Amino acid sequence: MVDFVCWNDTYSVHIREMDTHHRTFIGHINTLYNAIMHKETDTALAKIMQDLHAYAQYHFSAEEELMLKHNYPGLKQQVKQHIAFVDKLEAFAVMLFKEKDERARETLSFMKDWFLYHIRVVDKKYSDYFAEHNITI
Ligand SMILES: [Fe+2]
After folding, report:
1. Each residue of 2-17: b (16+ CB within 10 Å) or e?
2. pLDDT single digits (tens) 10-32
3. C-alpha 126 to ligand 1 mean position (Å)
4. CA of 119 to the centre of ligand 1 (A)
5. Domain boundaries along the sequence of the chain
6. Which CATH architecture is the domain 12-132 placed in?
7. pLDDT in tens, 96-119
8. If residue 92 lies in a helix (H) or strand (E), which one and from where to where?
9. 64 near 78, Cβ under 8 Å?
10. Which of 91, 98, 101, 132 has the highest count of CB atoms within 10 angstroms of its CB?
């Protein structure tokens, strides 16, 4: 399996559970990448998209719960971004099977860009906030 997105320690939000989630999320993106590259069947792709969707929702809920618990002021903004990601994912899941090649490229670059930006910029803010307020998880 080829890695389309690679984890590196600069992505760490210094919360072990969230780092593990982010790694698993990247794993789902890489699974999708490999399935597209190997021209897997629509059934296989649909299953991968479903798994990615389920994992995204699981991860986002866990993250939002953590932010809520510790009164993180950027929660609203995070929820907005999470909803937008899930919406986009659902739209791609539908389109992936129509104009396959073009949509596959768009889906993959969206996933990569969104996710890496989200971890490095948006999630980093709660990481900094927790550190500044001496919140240990
Ligand atoms: Fe996250």
Report:
1. eebbebeeebbbebee
2. 999 999 999 999 999 999 999 99
3. 10
4. 6
5. 12-132
6. Up-down Bundle (1.20)
7. 776 667 778 888 899 999 999 999
8. helix 75-95
9. yes
10. 91
